[in-house]
Amino acid sequence: ALSGHAEADILDREALAKAVKAARPDFVFHLAAQSLVRESYATPYETFEVNVMGSASLLEAVRAYGGPCAVVMVTSDKCYENLERQEGYSEGDRMGGFDPYSASKGAAELFISSYRRSFFNPEKLQSHGVKVASARAGNVIGGGDWAKDRIVVDFAVHCSRGESVPVRSPHSVRPWQHVLEPIGGYLALAQKLDQSADPALCDGFNFGPRLGDEATVRALVERFCARWPGASWRDDSKGEHPHEAGLLRLKIDKAVSMLGWSPVWGLDKTVERTANWYRAFYGGQTDTRALCLEDIQSYSADMAGSGN
Fold it and tell me: Is the residue at 224 inside a domain?
């Protein structure tokens, strides 16, 4: 059971500060965001407002609270200036972004870095006790996602209707991973922050698949088709679409070496679990909590078996 629950707009500084003060947290996880690239073209101002100033509201609330805690600020792998290069991006690469969403995440990272150095300096932990790190996850998929213009959601919805799935960017390469992978990374990062006074942990960390395990959108969709009887897809790339990056890879060496974290499920298992979730849902299993718990139990068992 939750020890407490409060709902408020992330931009409502007063309500957020009140909630943080009341919670007296040991750990803070910031995941509130406008999280869609295509939506950011429709609502650019709101995207920057939520993703940058929302992060500011949260860190201001932590500063006003004044107590020691470990803070994990979740941004995105899109925070990097994408040069369409084969090499994966590492945490020291330049922030940037072509579209408003990506740029807002790069800006959020710069803001987090500024606050960390200005108010939560890792070299002065004894004076404030606040440890701030950021997490940059690759493209997550998994059951329970209903967001607009997401390839797996589009696939499941169209297949449930017996329709061919339109695919906008079949050749784009992404670091696909099950949503439980970065969640495990966030928890590992928070645990390390709590247990260690190493200032190097107060930094950015990538969470994604192993290099070489990335895949094109086409390869992902074809794996889903293999696990959904009667499924098919069609190339919709010739339509009018806003710009999205064609190639994105992440280096995860830092999380592996410093946190002891590593991916548990490869792409095939990720697709299997995700396809099973949506097929079960559209087959009449509407207890989504039970479906998610099944995934968590399976992931936890595989993680224990892998030694993570």
Answer: yes
